[in-house]
Amino acid sequence: MSDVVLVTGVGPGTGKAIVECFADKGYTVAMLARSEQRLEAIAEATPNAQPFVCDVTDEARLAAVLDEIRSKFGAPKIVIHNAVGAERGTYLEVDADKMRAAFEINTMALLSLAKQLVPDMQAGGGGALIATGNTSAYRGKARFAGFAPTKAAQRILLESIAREAGPQGVHVAYVAIDAVIDLAWTREAFPNKPDDFFCQPADIASEVLRIAQQPRSAWSFESVIRPYGEVW
Prior knowledge:
There is one protein chain. The chain has one domain (4-225): NAD(P)-binding Rossmann-like Domain (Rossmann fold, 3-Layer(aba) Sandwich), CATH 3.40.50.720. Helices cover 43% and strands 17% of the residues. The chain has 7 helices and 7 strands; from the N terminus they run E-H-E-H-E-H-E-H-E-H-E-H-H-E. It has helices spanning 14-24, 36-45, 59-73, 96-123, 148-165, 184-189, 201-212; strands at residues 4-8, 28-33, 49-53, 78-81, 127-133, 170-177, 222-225. Helix 4 links the parallel strand 4 and strand 5 (127-133). The N and C termini lie far apart (42 Å).
């Protein structure tokens, strides 16, 4: 039986690319997202990809889905928290409720995943917990007042988990994307940029795979994807 990879936030860009990348390597990939239609379409086109409709901020639903995954395929060996919530604007503009919702997705859902799945990894001889993020985790720009704090909290939480879980054989890492990902809406936002300005989701997925498969003697906590220097 192949190792199980769990990916949250499977959208049309990075999430889908991560699923395809790991599935292509023979992993069984459990995909989590809120859109059943999107998940079914990806599953139909991607061997080894299994769809699970789930809002990761719903703890009861998340626990039930994880139990179903364990029952059907076994405990996930690799967990990639790619789900993201964003509330952008200056501190005067941000909606507090939307910022709280982003915090629930970015940080509290990561905590839930770690609590429920890292012990399984430790019992099974090791594994990897990876979050995809961006450099809002390191700096606060004026219009990112509702987003940067949630990503900074995510990164620091992950680092705290790494300190505890790393010595127990679980590789914990943060992949920060300081780039413009090639998506339909980013092409519209940057209409005059050349193709090589955009970071390809498949290349991000390859980096996540590399991190997940790092030998223990050379584990890295952070990987920053920054093709053009500081973008945001």
